[in-house]
Amino acid sequence: MSVDTTAVSHDPIGESVPQRPLVGASGSGWRERGFKYLLWFSLAVGIVTLATLLVYVLVKGWPRLDPRVLTNMPSAILPDRAGAQSAIMGTLWLMVFTALFALPTGILTAVYLEEYADPSRWWNRMIEVNLMNLAAVPSVVFGILGLAFISRGLGLGPTILTGSLTLALLVLPVVVIASREAIRAVPSSIRQGSLALGATQWQTIWRQVLPAATPGMATGSILALSRAIGEAAPLIILGVSFVTFNPNGLTSRFTALPVQIYDWTTQSRTEYLVLAAATSVVLLVILLAMNSVAIYIRNRTQKRR
Amino acid sequence: MTAVTDQTSTVQVSEVIHDDPSRVDVIPVIETKNLTVSYGDYQAVRDVDMVFGKNQITAMIGPSGCGKSTVLRCFNRMNDLVPGARVDGTVTYHGQDLYASDVDIIEVRRRVGMVFQKPNPFPKSIYDNIAYGPRVNSWKVSSMDDLVEEALTKAALWDEVKDKLKTSALALSGGQQQRLCIARCIAVQPDVILMDEPAASLDPISTAKIEDLMQDLVRNYTIIIVTHNMQQAARVSDRTGFFTSDVDEAGVRHGRLVEMGSTKTIFTTPSDKRTEDYVSGRFG
Predict the structure, then answer these.
(1) Which of A128, A218, B225, B272 has the greatest number of C-beta atoms within 10 Å?
(2) A251 touching B, CB under 8 A?
């Protein structure tokens, strides 16, 4: 068997197409480059600001960044002996209970709005609009709400319970919005597949929708909690200030890191300003740890699928 | 090669028409009478009278937007999930009204399974995909392993996946995913299997596998398939219903059943001109 190689001819079409020169490719115009620089600039604004802040706080707080910050209680008269232990413990207690109050409520609200609510009903639309608005309400206003209705109205006083309920209300809209996004991102083909096998709506949500939405809900929720951890304003309005003991229960009085930092920055002695910077570093470390957990959860649950 | 492009000829299609003399008697499993499905004020498909026979493959064919899938989704009440959808007329399953107020929708969906156009395995392991149906129906099974193996074997997938049952179903190829979805459907031991363009997103080899599988399954199940592909309907089905859409007096388009009969009749001697035009490739 011989192959007739003369049958292979040049493609006549290729020769008739006018070729554009390869030099000076389309991607290198001033418009393209200008836009790229603009993007870099925008990115740089955020990163440089954050880096400056971090370096400033680290440098400023360095002399006092020692175990005293973790082991000692605050003191208004002896800056050398003062630490932030009660504030650290207060912040941790607050976080745990804020999460316990806000996450189940927020996620269940999101499930209702995404899976059950009929958007043509006026009350469901009202809930939606309200949530959007609540997410934009300044935290001070939540502090006033907590003071009026929880601290005084329910008579709970400036305790861990009051603080975490107030912060839970503050982050609730953000948790709901993040969870809704995560639930909405679950393809409807999954829901249909489940329902078509005779699963009930609740089984479909519990066994398919929520597991698939977990990464999104976890990251959204932890970012919302990170916001709560840095809030000083609502706690100050609640009357949280300067205590020298660790909280021992929900009805315990407490102080928290942002409140303690704020308190020290209002002191006249410079030693306290240094201490405030050192304590800020502690707060930042806790924040970064929480965000790392969020990233870890997201990566782990995504890999599993 | 010229004969293939000759669209007026029905010879190519008739050569591959499925014809199994053991599958001609129609014992009704699902019947519709004056079935009209509306979305809000819009009637998507009107006055459909059809019969689907036991252990037969019935194909619903027709151009896009003629209401085939809409009709299919009435049989396991998936249209209930569409806000504003309304079903008029009757749909009976073994003589029982599927839309009676006391019908248990969960039980309907268990007996009338469904395979979707795009493979939709759950983001879980192959094993858990199959076990999902029995689990949500709280079945007391003596051995889930046996049940999984049986379902995968029936779906002609067991040999390909038996060593990786614990790996994610999303790692399978498109064709394997679709057979997994069929296995998942079989695992709840349905009576009827609805297939909504099950091979539309698959390559020709996977499509052929699905079609072979349908011929195996029809011995134990009643199969109803919606397809855009006339050749596929001709190859696999015993009976065919042809849908089209027409414009009413008010200028609104509605889907309609034009005619229904044995696949051989529909593809060789249809009684309606529109059917003839469609199956011979002149429109659609």
Answers:
(1) B225
(2) no
Q: What is the b/e burial string over A294-304, where b = at least 16 CB atoms within 10 angstroms of the residue's CB?
A: beebbeebeee
Q: Is residue B176 part of a domain?
A: no
Best probe of the A interface among B75, B122, B130, by most A CBs < 10 A, is: B122
pLDDT tens digits for range B101-139 = 999 999 999 999 999 999 999 999 999 999 999 999 888
pTM of the predicted model as reported, rounded to 2 decimal places: 0.80
Q: Does B138 touch chain A (CB under 8 A)?
A: no
Of B81, B83, B136, the CB nearest to A203: B136
> Which CATH number characterizes residue A185's domain?
1.10.3720.10
CA distance A212 to chain B (A): 8
Residues of A in contact with B123 (CB under 8 A): 190, 211-212, 305
Give the total number of structural domains in chain A: 1
d(CA A169, CA A139): 10
Read off the pLDDT of residues A109-118 as tens digits, 9 standing for 90 and up: 999 999 998 8
| Cβ neighbours around B141 below 10 Å, total | 13
**What is the tens place of the pLDDT at every residue in A243-286?**
888 888 888 888 899 999 998 888 888 888 889 999 999 999 99
Domain extent for A279: 63-304
A193 Cβ under 8 Å from any chain B Cβ = yes
B224-242 pLDDT per residue, tens:
999 988 889 999 999 999 9
Q: List the single residue in B109, B120, B122 with the smallest CB-CB distance to A198.
A: B109
Q: Is the residue at B157 inside a domain? A: no
**Average pLDDT, stretch A159-172?**
93
Q: What CATH code is carried by the domain that includes residue B34?
A: 3.40.50.300
Structure tokens at B182: 């069929």
